């Protein structure tokens, strides 16, 4: 039985979406491995600590994925549950570390937050730019 063009197009679309999802998962895994390597080096993790940390992070990703996949939950509720999951797992990670490692972790996280803040455009500037565009579209000849 031959597939219609619409069915073929739909099948190709699904395959493309799956490829993007697979690529995203591979990128996520590569990022986690890189983060794990950096943390091991910067915090001086033991083999046992590293294994426990990886286990916690894998469980966290699984929990976050399950929350994200819930269709009948509002976006705000999902964000709240994800935040709660991350906080719970972060506390568990801190429990694995020595006081010196916790101090180093805090420094690493502060540095990473600073980097992210530097990479994210100023929200006020973006809002102003968008408002200017809207105003120019609303004015005659603009």
Count of helical segments? 5
What's the SSE pattern?
A: HHHHH
Number of strands: 0
Radius of gyration: 22 Å
Instruction: Please state roughly what percent of the residues sit in beta strands, choosing from under 5%, 5-15%, 15-25%, 25-35%, 35-45% or over 45%.
Output: under 5%
The major beta sheet can be summarized as:
none
What level of helicity do the residues show? Answer: over 70%
Low-confidence segments, ≥5 residues, pLDDT <50?
Answer: none
Structural class: mainly alpha
State the shape: extended
**End-to-end CA span:** 56 Å
Mean model confidence by pLDDT: 80
Description:
The chain has 142 residues and is mostly helical. The chain has a domain at 50-120. Helices cover 85% and strands 0% of the residues. The protein is built from five helices and no strands. The chain has helices at residues 5-43, 47-68, 75-96, 99-119, 123-138. Helix 2 packs antiparallel against helix 3.
Summarize the structure.
The protein has 142 residues and is mainly alpha-helical.
Primary descriptors:
5 helices, 142 residues, mainly alpha
Q: Could you outline the blueprint of secondary structure elements for this entry?
A:
Elements: H1 5-43, H2 47-68, H3 75-96, H4 99-119, H5 123-138
Helix pairs in contact: 2-3
